[in-house]
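Hey Z.,

So I finally got round to the magnesium ion thing we talked about over coffee. Here's the setup:
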Amino acid sequence: MMNLNGEHDRETELPIIAFDKVSKTYSTGTKAITNLSLKINKGEFVFIVGSSGSGKSTLIKLLLKEIEPSEGNIFVNGKELTRLRRSQIPKHRRGIGVVFQDFRLLKDRNVFENVAFAQRVIQEPIRSIKRKVPSILAEVGLSEKMQVLPKQLSGGEQQRVALARALVNNPVILLADEPTGNLDPKNSWEIMNLLEEVNKKGTTVVIVTHNREIVDAMQKRVITMNKGVLISDETKGGYSYEG
Ligand SMILES: Nc1ncnc2c1ncn2[C@@H]1O[C@H](COP(=O)(O)OP(=O)(O)OP(=O)(O)O)[C@@H](O)[C@H]1O
Ligand SMILES: [Mg+2]
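And the result:
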């Protein structure tokens, strides 16, 4: 739903992601997240920023149900994650594409196979794989590199393969944990521009980043974490964390 300014109205819309009073204490005793409440609506583009150790990656892992909250509830697409049955977890994860700082490509598989792998896992028919993989690789500008191994690509190209792999199963949510952490400014902008295009087609995009220049320039929603606590949430924010 839009408000009169043509902006999404966070109060009335059904969130695709909701944290309700979530805390996470690791087994070591480290309190990574404290009493976090947060809603993200379908189709939003959100940056999560904050100093090292502020709980950003923990938040991503909670969303993927790689770890469990110590307190509170997390809802993704209307489903409360602690109540998902084991058999429902693969479907939950398929709805979320993920991109990491270190690309995490299969070293001994070419570009096509790295992207096709995500489709084989969900047992897509070969015919559909042969159609979808080249199409998504074209979207990220890698049509010419389908037969090449990851080590023969630049960092920016490797990240675009990772992005294609994250998108090939049409996720509703795309999570990126420092996707530009290993990239130079030009490649960083290329990845951000692709993420913005993905968002324009309707995917909810959540990006953890330390890239101040990009956050300040893009004028998106910015959530700032500090020592596990959400300290600011701005609709058209900047990178306000100092240090
Ligand atoms: N598996 C774990 N076991 C114990 N403590 C952990 C674990 N993972 C993270 N932590 C701790 O939890 C806190 C939050 O870590 P997290 O990785 O979420 O931070 P971050 O905001 O992603 O930091 P960075 O910007 O450096 O990636 C840190 O104090 C970290 O040391
Ligand atoms: Mg992190």
